[in-house]
Design goal:
The complex is a heterodimer of chains A (about 80) and B (about 260).
Chain A (H helix, E strand, L loop, with lengths): L1 H25 L43 E6 L3
Chain B lengths: L1 H10 L4 E6 L5 H10 L8 E3 L13 E5 L5 E5 L1 H4 L1 H14 L8 H11 L3 H11 L2 H26 L3 H15 L3 H15 L4 H17 L7 H13 L4 H13 L6
Parallel strand pairs in B: 1-2
Antiparallel strand pairs in B: 3-4
Helix pairs in contact in B: 5-6, 6-7, 7-8, 7-9, 8-9, 10-11, 10-12, 11-12
Classes of the chains: A mainly alpha (about 80), B mainly alpha (about 260).
Chain lengths: ~80, ~260
């Protein structure tokens, strides 16, 4: 009995942890930085804006900016 | 935020900064906040759409997309220190050189293009008549066509000062290439039409106003009155609509 219960408890704990992790990433980002991570990608990224950004002056997608470095600053008002 | 604003103002057209608001704040509020903090008045773009996914769990987060479109760095800015600014400087330098892997025979052609002489660069490609030269020519035409399309968008949306600057540069760049020169002339002709007189004057006045007030106190009553007077003078223009929005944003009470 004990041996069969132990994996179940482990599973429940793991599932709970995963649920909490997914819930925290689904909400909006917190203003204060926590454990920062970093990433790079070898392939060119593509993105077409659904709504023209403020001050876009006709830029509709990232491809319009090819040949120029692009800095993306993710920020929060609060 | 201030660091990215500084980068945009330092490099001008050589770098594109995109600010992405990530906390679902109402657009009016974050836009008013950006004006209030004196972050407007430069070439940076503002949106809530994330062109790439965030990788961290907190803000701020910053990313650098290189001239080839790949993500070079992304993460918490405090972790990068000077490395981020150095990487931006490196990419700016690379943007003024032929792309990595360019055949030796085309390096000079790319330099010609990057210096702004599109017509000469295309003529050099035609002269070389190789597959690589054909690909380079396609790239030159695509990038120039995108600039022409943007100039067209600027005219249609009343950003006449930016359109004038862009068309002026394009005219010089494509002089000697009949096809591209024709497309630029078509837009220049639209820009010059008498019916757009008010649009040109209104945008000229508002652009000058923004250049002055964005770094002072944009929402000071005196500044708002000046903006309103431009809108009243050039009613029914696209610029007047933008001014109405500016005035509305100035009335938003920000909590901090």
């Amino acid at each position: 009995m004990k041996s069969s219960l132990k994996p179940s408890l482990t599973f429940v704990a793991l599932a709970g942890t995963l649920l909490l992790a997914s819930a925290s990433t689904a909400t909006s980002l917190e203003p204060a930085a926590s454990a920062p991570s970093s990433a790079t990608s070898a392939a060119p990224v593509e993105y077409k804006f659904r709504e023209a950004p403020v001050n876009s002056l006709g830029i509709q997608n990232l491809a319009d900016l090819r040949g120029k470095p692009v800095v993306i600053d993710f920020w929060g008002r609060n | 935020m201030p660091a990215s604003t500084k980068l945009q103002e330092q490099y001008g057209d050589d770098v594109q900064v995109i600010f992405v608001e990530c906390q679902n704040t109402a657009k009016d509020e974050w836009e008013a906040f950006a004006w209030y903090k004196k972050w407007m008045g430069n070439a940076a773009l503002w949106t809530v759409e994330r062109p790439i996914d965030t990788v961290g769990k907190g803000l701020p987060e910053t990313a650098l997309i290189g001239i080839d479109g790949s993500v070079i760095m992304q993460g918490y800015p405090g972790d990068f220190g000077k490395k981020f600014d150095e990487a931006v400087a490196t990419e700016v330098k690379k943007s003024k050189q032929a792309p990595a892997g360019t055949p030796k025979a085309l390096e000079k052609t790319w330099q010609t293009f990057l210096k702004g002489d599109v017509a000469a660069a295309i003529a050099e490609c035609d002269k070389l008549a190789s597959d690589d030269a054909g690909k380079a020519k396609d790239e030159f035409i695509a990038r120039t066509s995108a600039r022409i399309a943007r100039a067209k968008w600027m005219i249609e949306n009343g950003f006449m000062s930016a359109a004038e600057k862009s068309l002026g540069a394009l005219e010089k760049s494509v002089k000697g290439n009949a096809e591209l020169a024709g497309k630029v002339a078509e837009q220049k002709s639209r820009f010059d039409t008498a019916e757009l007189n008010d649009e040109r004057e209104a945008d000229k006045a508002f652009s000058a106003f923004v250049a002055t007030c964005a770094k002072e106190k944009p929402f000071e009553p005196g500044n708002v009155k000046k903006a309103e007077s431009i809108a009243n003078k050039f009613k029914s223009t696209k610029t007047a609509q933008r001014i109405e929005r500016f005035v509305a944003l100035s009335k938003i009470k920000l909590e901090k």
